[in-house]
Amino acid sequence: MFKTSILVLLSFLNLANSQNWIRSCYVYAGNEFPVSGIDSRLFTHLVCAFANINSSNYEIYIEPSDETFMATFTEIVTSKNPSAKTLLSIWAGKPHSPMFFDMTNSSMFFDMINSYSTFFGMINQLSHRTSFIRSAMMAARRHGFMGLDLSYVFLSTSANMANMGSFFDEWREAINSEPRKYDTAPLILTMGAMYSPVMDSLIYPVNDIKRNFDWVHVRSFDYHVSSKDRFTGAHAALYDPSSNLNTDYGINEWIRRGLPAKKLVIGLPYHGYAWTLVNSDDYAIGAPTNGMALTKDGSVSYRYIKGYLNSYGVKPLFNSTYVVNYCKIGSFWIGFDDVEAVKTKVSYAKEKGLLGYNVFQIPNDDTDWILSTTAQEEANNQENKQQLRVIVLSTTVAAMILVSATICFVKRKSIITRGKVAWSKRKKHTNQQGFTFAQIAAATDNFSSENKLGEGGFGPVYKGELQNGLQIAVKRLSKGSKQGIEELKNELALTARLQHVNLLKVLGICTEKEEQMLIYEYMPNGSLDNYLFDPVKRLCLDWQKRIQIIEGITQGLLYLQEYSVVTIIHRDLKASNILLDKEMKPKISDFGIAKVFEKDEYAASTRRIIGTYGYIPPEYVKGGIYSRKYDVYSFGVLLLQIISGKKTSSLYGLQKNLNLLEHAYELWKNDSSMDFMDPKLDDSSSTCKMKRCIQVALLCVQERWEDRPSMLEVSSMLKNEMENVPAPNMPAFSTCKRSEGEKICDLMEVCSASMLTITQEMPR
Ligand SMILES: *[C@@H]1O[C@H](CO)[C@@H](O)[C@H](O)[C@H]1NC(C)=O
Ligand SMILES: *[C@@H]1O[C@H](CO)[C@@H](O)[C@H](O)[C@H]1NC(C)=O
Ligand SMILES: *[C@@H]1O[C@H](CO)[C@@H](O)[C@H](O)[C@H]1NC(C)=O
Ligand SMILES: *[C@@H]1O[C@H](CO)[C@@H](O)[C@H](O)[C@H]1NC(C)=O
Ligand SMILES: *[C@@H]1O[C@H](CO)[C@@H](O)[C@H](O)[C@H]1NC(C)=O
Ligand SMILES: *[C@@H]1O[C@H](CO)[C@@H](O)[C@H](O)[C@H]1NC(C)=O
Question: Where does this protein have coiled-coil stretches (predicted)?
Answer without folding.
Answer: none
